[in-house]
Automatic annotation (TrEMBL):
The chain crosses the membrane at residues 60-78. Keywords: Membrane, Transmembrane, Transmembrane helix. It comes from the Bacteria. It holds the Pfam family LysM. InterPro entries: LysM, LysM_dom_sf. The lineage of its organism: Bacteria, Bacillati, Actinomycetota, Coriobacteriia, Coriobacteriales. Coiled coil: none annotated. This is LysM peptidoglycan-binding domain-containing protein. Gene3D superfamilies: LysM domain. It comes from Collinsella aerofaciens (strain ATCC 25986 / DSM 3979 / JCM 10188 / KCTC 3647 / NCTC 11838 / VPI 1003). Residues 95-145 form the LysM domain.
C-alpha cells in the first residue's frame, strides 16, 4: 500500500467538510450540458416542503358541475336502457322447448332473439325466466324461451 494514502491515529476520525456545501445542477439533454453551481442553503426549504397547490373557488365549482353533469347523464342513459329492457321483456311471449345436445343459453338467445335486446340480455332473460343458477344446460331439459316472431 502507498504510504501517502495511509492515515494514522486520531487523524482518521477527523472529518473535513467545506464551510458551505455546494452541488452542481446539470441542464441539457443528450447533446450536451451546462453546469450551474447552486447554493443549497437557498433551495433547502423548497426541497424539504413541497409546494402546496391551492385550488381556487371557480375551479372547484367547475369540477363539481362537471361531475354532476356526468352523473345525471349516466343516470339518464341507464334509466333509458332499463326502460327499453323492461318494455321488451314485458311484451315477450314464451314457448317451451326441449334442450338438444350442444345447446347453450347463448345459442338459444341467438336462435330466439328479442327485438331491442342484445344476445347477452336475451341469454340473461332466459336464465332468469327458467330460474337457472348457472349457465350450463342439460340435454333433454325443458326450457321457456321467447316465442319466434
Amino acid at each position: 500500500m502507498n504510504a501517502t494514502n495511509m492515515v494514522q491515529g486520531n487523524l482518521a476520525l477527523k472529518l473535513e467538510t467545506p464551510a458551505e456545501p455546494t452541488f452542481t445542477v446539470v441542464q441539457g439533454g443528450r447533446s450536451g450540458f451546462q453546469p450551474l453551481t447552486v447554493n443549497p442553503a437557498c433551495n433547502q426549504q423548497a426541497a424539504v416542503a413541497p409546494a402546496r397547490v391551492a385550488l381556487k373557488v371557480p375551479t372547484i365549482v367547475a369540477v363539481a358541475v362537471a361531475l354532476t353533469l356526468f352523473f345525471v347523464l349516466a343516470m339518464s342513459v341507464f334509466s333509458a336502457r332499463h326502460a327499453a329492457y323492461a318494455e321488451s321483456v314485458s311484451s315477450v311471449t314464451y314457448e317451451t322447448i326441449r334442450v338438444q345436445p350442444g345447446d347453450s343459453l347463448w345459442s338459444l338467445a341467438e336462435e330466439y332473439p328479442i327485438e331491442g335486446l342484445s344476445t347477452q340480455e336475451t341469454s340473461d332473460m332466459i336464465r332468469n325466466v327458467n330460474h337457472l343458477e348457472h349457465g350450463s344446460l342439460a340435454a333433454g331439459a325443458h326450457l321457456k324461451v321467447p316465442a319466434r316472431s
